[in-house]
Amino acid sequence: MGIRTITNFFVNWIAKDRKPSKFPMCDFEKIRYELRPCDVILIEGRSRVSDVIRMITQSAWTHSALYIGKLHDIEDPTIREIAKAHYNGPEKDHLLIEGMLGQGTVVTPLHAYKKDHIRICRPRGLTPTDAHEVIAYSVKKLGTDYDIRQIIDLLRFFFPWSIMPRRWRSYIFSRTAGRATRTVCSTVIAEAFSSVDFPILPYIQRTKHRKIELVHRNPRLFTPRDFDYSPYFEIIKYPFLEFDNASSYRKLPWNRDGLMSHDYENITQEVKGENSTD
């Protein structure tokens, strides 16, 4: 068995999704209607690698993708043809650009996440011209390999400096900084917004003349949660069960018999058992 075979087996194992919930947390149809090109989509992943990212970042959001609209929404014919060359589905599909483990940077139809918990992060005030530039930058990254090593780098970065070997401390800044041959899901999106100077989580400092200036962060350090945390992105949610006026949440179909711990089947039995002993 060759190294490539072993690697592919490992990637497929950690990237395999578990079954989705019967009832997702969000209303997919409303989200699809609301989406605009250049919105960032956050996804609560269901794979083993998602569990690793969740542990590293301490966030439910383990994957991110850039919404580019439909193929005909891309005004630049050259950029449109590049995107089209990487997607052989119907032209009416709503499309995302994302970094996929084992596949690299690819075009994916939005409906691939129909059963997932997703959220919209909208860059506030992004101009139409810069929106086209962000999409163009991302489309040009299609075909770039996925850098699984960066997940390890991020894990190292989250360890306290005092217990981290000295040779690891600057690894992600010296070895991977500036490399354009590999990426992860958040990196290509961060690079795209950085290309038009749109802030995500910039470092703010004072110059020697006491003026305020922003410094771009290394895009390889961004994770999906940073778009949720950023004050420059608006958060748009559409819950699966929604209420839209005062006190209407009291009309939601609550089960009054018990509480949820892990899964519904066990909960009902546990609560009924507790009630029967009273």
**CATH class value:** Alpha Beta
Write down the CATH topology: endopeptidase fold (from Nostoc punctiforme)
Structural class comes to alpha+beta
Strand content: 15-25%
Sum up the overall morphology in one term. Answer: globular
Count of DSSP H/I helices: 11
Major sheet summary line: 6 strands, antiparallel
N-to-C SSE series? HHEHEHEEEHEHHHEHEEHEH
Notes on the structure:
With 278 residues, the protein is of the alpha+beta class. It has one domain: endopeptidase domain like (from Nostoc punctiforme) (endopeptidase fold (from Nostoc punctiforme)), CATH 3.90.1720. The chain is 35% helix and 16% strand. Strands 4-3-2-1-5-10 form a six-stranded antiparallel β-sheet. Strands 6-7 form a two-stranded parallel ribbon. β8 and β9 form a beta hairpin. α5 crosses α9. About 7% of the residues have low confidence.
Summary keywords:
single chain; 278 residues; alpha+beta; endopeptidase fold (from Nostoc punctiforme); six-stranded antiparallel β-sheet; two-stranded parallel ribbon; 11 helices; 16% strand
Briefly say what this structure is.
The protein is an alpha+beta fold.
Write the layout of secondary structure elements.
Elements: H1 3-15, H2 28-34, E1 40-43, H3 48-57, E2 63-69, H4 77-85, E3 95-100, E4 104-109, E5 118-123, H5 128-140, E6 145-146, H6 149-157, H7 166-169, H8 171-174, E7 182-183, H9 185-194, E8 203-206, E9 212-215, H10 225-229, E10 233-236, H11 264-277
Parallel strand pairs: 6-7
Antiparallel strand pairs: 1-2, 1-5, 2-3, 3-4, 5-10, 8-9
Helix pairs in contact: 5-9
